[in-house]
Design brief:
The protein is an alpha+beta fold. Strands 1, 2, 3, 4, 5, 6 and 7 form a seven-stranded antiparallel sheet that branches. A hairpin with a 5-residue loop joins strand 1 and strand 2. The radius of gyration is 33 Å and the shape is flat.
């Protein structure tokens, strides 16, 4: 009887130990999953200089939240992490290694969000494309002098050749697409083609004054690529019409605006040579044929 009681007590104690150990393990794991919060020493301001310095530090954060969110894309709910990084910088000696590391962070961000994006856009819709991880590896290898895959001079030459080839293919395709579109569009009812190659269709016939090239006009508009993609509209810039002189815009607009009576609404079909030509403009690829709905609201005298 005593032996059975001793065994039962032993099992009970062992079970409690295992339960306590499991509870402690779960608690420790939960604590590890919590973000570490840096404990700051209490602030003690004993002199005027102390108070001035503290106020100056707080003052210097004016507008910082907006800058972090809008310019750097930082989620400001993670300000504790931002402050930890800030404290690491201001609280340590600027050794050569730390300077290099911080510069790496800065340049890495610029390459990732700027240079790499622009290069990728340059090769969009071309036979070749940019693959980010391989681009970043090439960048890093060049900086560390690793020429196992490709030498620097060879890389420069290879890139230039590929760039010229891809841009030539893109140019030929976009120009052909634009010409084919305009040739078919010229056959549509109501479409008029001018000697310059500009095409237009009168949607609303105005009865007002026709602007001179030096007049300031007020215009509502929407611009599209021939695939229907809207790249700009006056409504995106406020409720008021856009205001400018006809000579301040692309040639296709200049020609149309100096033929349109006030009150007119036309649809313009602008060849690339009367548009932006080889220059990309925002969301407009180079050599793009453009379509605009243009309403001439008035002339600002």
């Amino acid at each position: 009887m005593k032996k059975s009681l001793i065994i039962a007590l032993a099992l009970l104690v062992a079970g409690a130990s295992f339960a306590n150990a499991e509870t402690a393990r779960k608690k420790k794991k939960k604590e590890q999953q919590k973000p570490a919060t840096e404990v700051q020493a209490p602030v003690v301001l004993t002199t005027g200089s102390d108070s001035l310095s503290y106020a100056a530090g707080m003052m210097m954060t004016n507008g910082l939240f907006d800058f972090l969110e809008k310019q750097l894309g930082v989620d400001t709910t993670y300000m504790a992490d931002f402050v930890r990084g800030f404290n690491e910088v201001v609280g340590s000696e600027a050794t050569p290694q730390q300077k290099a590391l911080r510069a790496g962070y800065q340049i890495g961000q610029q390459v990732k969000e700027g240079m790499a994006v622009r290069v990728k856009q340059e090769f969009t819709n071309t036979p070749d494309s940019i693959i980010y991880p391989i681009l970043f590896r090439g960048f890093a290898d060049a900086l560390t002098g690793d020429t196992t895959v490709m030498k620097t001079d060879a890389a420069d030459e290879f890139f230039k050749v590929k760039q010229q080839y891809n841009q030539a293919v893109l140019k030929e395709r976009l120009i052909k697409e634009g010409r084919d579109f305009l040739a078919q569009n010229a056959q549509q009812p109501g479409v008029i083609t001018t000697p310059s190659g500009l095409q237009y269709k009168v949607l609303v016939k105005g009865e007002g004054e026709v602007p001179q090239s030096t007049d300031k006009v007020k215009v509502n508009y929407e611009g599209r690529l021939i695939d229907g993609t809207v790249f700009d509209a006056s409504s995106k810039h406020g409720n008021a019409p856009a205001t400018f002189t006809p000579t301040q815009v692309i040639k296709g607009w200049t020609e149309a605006l100096t033929m349109m009576p006030v009150g007119s609404k036309w649809q313009l079909y602008i060849p690339q040579e009367l548009g932006y030509g080889e220059r990309p403009a925002g969301n407009i690829p180079p050599y793009s044929t453009l379509i605009f709905d243009v309403e001439l609201v008035g002339i600002d005298k």
